[in-house]
Amino acid sequence: MPATLPAKPTRTRRATFRSAVPRRLAAVAAAAALVTAPAALVSAPLAHAASSATASPSSVAPSGRVTLAMQGCGARTARVTSTAFGEVRLETASAQTTGLSGSATVYNDANPGTHRVVFECGGPGGERVTVSLQVTPGAARGGTGGSIGSMSTVQTAVGGALAVCALAGGVWVLRRRASA
Length: 180
Description:
About 35% of the residues lie in helices and about 30% in strands. It is an alpha+beta fold and about 180 residues long. Strand 5 and strand 6 (about 100-105) form a beta hairpin. The protein is elongated and about 150 Å long.
């Protein structure tokens, strides 16, 4: 029999699998990119939503307290300035919260009217949000929490007389018990 040359080796199944793997991985990566790209585009604006701020109550008397809050800032601190109370620094309450909060006391001699309250995310030069604060004429009432208005002289005299009568009656009862 004549000698024959060996036939050209054919590709084995293993060799075919090895050459197909990079193409398959590339196809899977492309499909994943197509699926996740729209989700990334949709969520990007939500991550950088505009900041919002509040000053509560929105109307306050001189010497009154105002609670200041800022949401959506993305920083750990913010600076708040106003002609009604000066400068205040807001901070997060805890590591789990995302909002910044703080409080300020309105100056005793603050002018009645509308005052701008400027919130700066991260401090000076950061994103700004401006709200209005209304300072009302008059002073904040202390002591009784503002539950008592003005009292006339007659009301004060009657109240004093009742207090003296109650004291005298208590002394009389104690003396009577002691002598019995």
